[in-house]
Amino acid sequence: TATAPLAAAADVAATLEETHTIWRQVLGPLATPPRDRRQAGRRSRTNLEPFVAVLCVDRQQYLAELEPHEPAIGMTQGIYRAATRTLWLPQAVADAPAARATIRHEATHQLCAESRATSPLAGEANGFWAIEAVACYLESAAPATWGWTVGGPDAGRMPAARRLLVEDGFHVPLEEL
User: Fold this and answer.
1) How deeply is 65 buried, as exposed, middle or buried, from its count of CB atoms within 10 A (0-12, 13-18, 19+)?
2) CA 134 to chain centre
3) Which of 14, 69, 97, 154 lies in the 20 to 30 Å Cα band around 34?
């Protein structure tokens, strides 16, 4: 769904489709229904409903729609809300140079949450780092002649993290973390 212009919606839709392809390439077992019910347990989900995404015409609409449910929404560039199974983006983010990374990040959350039966509390009390790691990993997707590459020392958020550690000396010991 979009209140943004059709061209912006088409660009976001194309990036979402690309992200689904990348996600299937990188995390294939999550995308493929198990052949045997014993592999998946009782909560396997084989019939997928369409994924829902909303592209707001501007940041004001994005904030107005989400602030009643997400008080800290002003700190975000996009969000996947598990409660409504909806990915939300403001058009300004979709038009930004780094838009694909934000779209891929949020779409990864949606694909992971909706492609298999998962707890609605996944990432709330624990496991948050794993969910964010996968989303950050897919942010770094780059086209290759045979498909897509992801990760690497110069991909995604790694250069900024390296600068924080090496140049700024910022480090939180694992024990404190």
Assistant:
1) middle
2) 8
3) 14
What tokens appear for 70 in the block? 């997400």
Contact criterion met (CB below 8 Å) for 76 and 93: no
Determine contact, residues 58/69, Cβ cutoff 8 Å.
no
Cβ-contact 117, 43 below 8 angstroms: yes
Q: How far apart are CA 47 and CA 34, in angstroms?
A: 12
Kindly give, in sequence order, each residue whose CB lies less than 8 Å from that of residue 108, ignoring residues fewer than 6 positions away: 19, 23, 134, 135, 138, 139
Which residues pair with residue 81 across a beta bridge? 86
User: Which residue type occupies 126?
Assistant: N
pLDDT, one tens digit for every residue, the chain (177 residues): 999 999 999 999 999 999 999 998 888 776 665 554 445 554 544 456 789 999 999 999 999 999 999 999 999 999 999 889 999 999 987 777 788 899 999 999 999 888 877 666 666 666 777 888 889 899 999 889 988 889 888 887 778 888 888 889 888 887 887
Q: Which two tokens stand for residue 108?
A: 């990864």
* CA-wise closest residue to 57 among 88, 81, 16, 99: 88
